[in-house]
Structures are given as structure tokens and as C-alpha cells.
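Hey, quick one: can you model this chain's 3D structure?
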Amino acid sequence: METLAIILAGGRGSRLDILSEKRSKPAVPFAGKFRIIDFALSNCTNSGIFQIGILTQYLPLSLNEHIGVGKPWDLDRRDSFVTLLQPNNSWYNGTADAVRKNIEFVKRYASKYVLILSGDHIYKMDYSKMIEQHKKTGADLTIAAKIVPMEEASRFGILETDENLRIQKFVEKPKQPKSNKASMGIYVFNTEALIQAIEEHPDIDDLDFGMHIIPGMIENKKVYAYEYYDYWKDVGTYDSYVEANLELCRDDCPLDLYDKEWKIYTKSEDLPPVKVGKSANISTSLISNGCKILGNVTNSVLSPGVIVGEGTVIKNSVILNDVIIGKNCKIEDTIIDKDTVIGDNSIIGTGDKSIVNQDNPKVLSSGLNVIGKKLILPEGLVVERNVRIFSSSSKKVVPNTHIKAGETIK
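Sure thing. Here's the predicted structure for all 410 residues.
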């Protein structure tokens, strides 16, 4: 085996708040029919990498059910596998600690290279090109890098390279970055170099690639950057999640989901085709299988099984699986999680956008509303802006009739 892929998929994704309340971030639905992790998995199989370990941790059930034996990604063949690995005696305390706690898995398969990926980014990338550069440079470690706006550079691990792309310096989330060449969290290691680097830090509990492994290897090993110029997005906040979903609705969509040469695979449900009623109007939207549209949908993403009643208008929103929306509703700038029912004549997304969420202004301040799963919203409900309504474990009626801007309902 030449390359073993390790996908880090245990993150809670706390900034996704309600969406990651009942599932890990890589398991969050995206672009209608997909999950976020589908992109990393599909990139692997499209790149000819069919041996994959997935490190799970936080609420793994949804992710485990979605991946199964890996059939949608052609990972159930005799010469391929996908292995789901959960922590045994203690939780993962850092990205490199997660690999350390599964180092026997890495040693067992004795591949020449280890490709380490995050399971929560949206992009299409041919990893074989990165591995080919890794071979040509004789690198011990190659890090995928993307140029980001200078004002955003402090959010990333930042690389400084010479003219041959050899990395001279790496700083994790610098306050005053000297470069805007950002690490994408995608690494190709020589397997021996990875094992050695991890075993050199037995006393660091929260072992992290950006904080510990990479800086040490730059001093003692050959570490190179692989520059990537196509679409790549971290959908770690409500705003970026909605933005990335709605970008796919545009005619000039930056990420082509319809490319037959590089398909994004997923576990699909057996649902009937989309039904559009005679009074319906749909524009600039993604509509998934099993949807029934009797109202108007504009610049929105509807996941499988969504029903939209007559006279209802949906704008700039992301609606997840099996949501039922009644008649004559107005829904704007809203995320609605699975299996929720919206009563007739409801208005969601109205009023003042400047009133931030009072409980958690860091996650909700732009005017979006987020409504959790398995809720029943009563007829005539009015929801203003920056409102969070948390999920229920079973169908539960929200007692309010008017939820003011910035409120949180638990």
C-alpha cells in the first residue's frame, strides 16, 4: 500500500451550535443531499486512495450510520477499506494526539505515505498531485497551502516559504502574520517521519500538528508547501455554512457539483422525484429528491423530503431533510434542521438585524435564524432575527407565538 488516508472527523464544531448539537461537524448535511465529510471521502476515492481510517469522537452515531462500510465511495471492495476509529481509554486532546492514539493502526498497514485530512472542509482536490510533488521534492512532510486575504490570515496556521516552496517558518494563528499563505490542514507525511515525530513528544498531552509537530519538523526535516488555488472553504460558522450552501445556487458557482470527471459521492435515500405544483415558482436554488414544492423558493437549498405549502415564500435559506412548511409562510435568512414542522401563516426572519443573539452573540449576529430538529412551530408564529431555537429529542411544540430578535429558546 502506497498511501493510507487518515480523516480527522471527531470535531464538535461548537460554532455551528445547534447544527452540531446532535451530530459531529463532519456529519452536518450540506448542499441538499450531502454531508460535509463526503467531500474528503470523495476526494480520496477520486484520487485513487482506497485505504482510509476515520478518527471519530464527538457524537459519532450519525457519522457511523452515514459511512457504513463505505459502499457509496467504492470502499467496500476487496482491495479497499474504511475503518472507523474511536478513542478507547481517553478522548483525543489535539490533532496529532488523535493520530498518536491510533498509531498502531498506522503501523499495521505500513504504507509509504500517510495523508492526513480534516473531515469538515468543502473542496475538490486531487491528492495524487500533492503526493507526486511530495515525491519529487524528497520531502518528509508536505503541507497544502492556500493564499487567503491578509485580514483573515490570523485565523490560520501561516507558512513562510523560500522560492522552492520549502517552508522556513510556521506560526499557528499569528496575531500579526507576515504572510497570507495559510495551511489547509492537509498533510502528506512519509510514514516513518510521522511516527518518529509523534513518538518524540511523549510528554505533551494535547499534541497538535500546528503547535508541536510541524515547527519541530521544519528544523530537522524537509518540509514543503503544496500551493492550491481552487475553491476551499471551512464551513465552521453559521454565516460561512449558509454562504457556502447558497454559493452553489449561483450560475457562476465556484464549486462544480456536476463535473462527471470528479463526482461527489454520498449515501442516497430512495425517494421519489421532485414535484413542483402549478402555482410554484423556483429560482436560483438547489432542490433535492423527494421535495414537494407548492410555493415559491428563491436562492435557497432544500434537502431531501422537504414539503413547501401553497403561498409560502422561502428566500436565502437552508432547509434540511424532511422539514414540512405549511401554507402562506414567509421564511428568510433561516436554517431549519431535520424533521421540523412549520405551521401555516408563520413569518420567520423579519425585523431588525442589528440585535444580536443575547445568549451567544459570537455565533449569531448577522440576521440569520437557526431552528433545530424535531420541533413543531405553531400556526401564525413570528420569529424576528438572530434567534436560536434548540432541537428536541422527540417532536415538541414550541409554545411561543412571537419570538423577538436575539432570543434563544431551549
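One thing worth noting: Helices lie at 37-46, 61-67, 95-100, 103-109, 127-137, 191-199, 209-220, 238-247.
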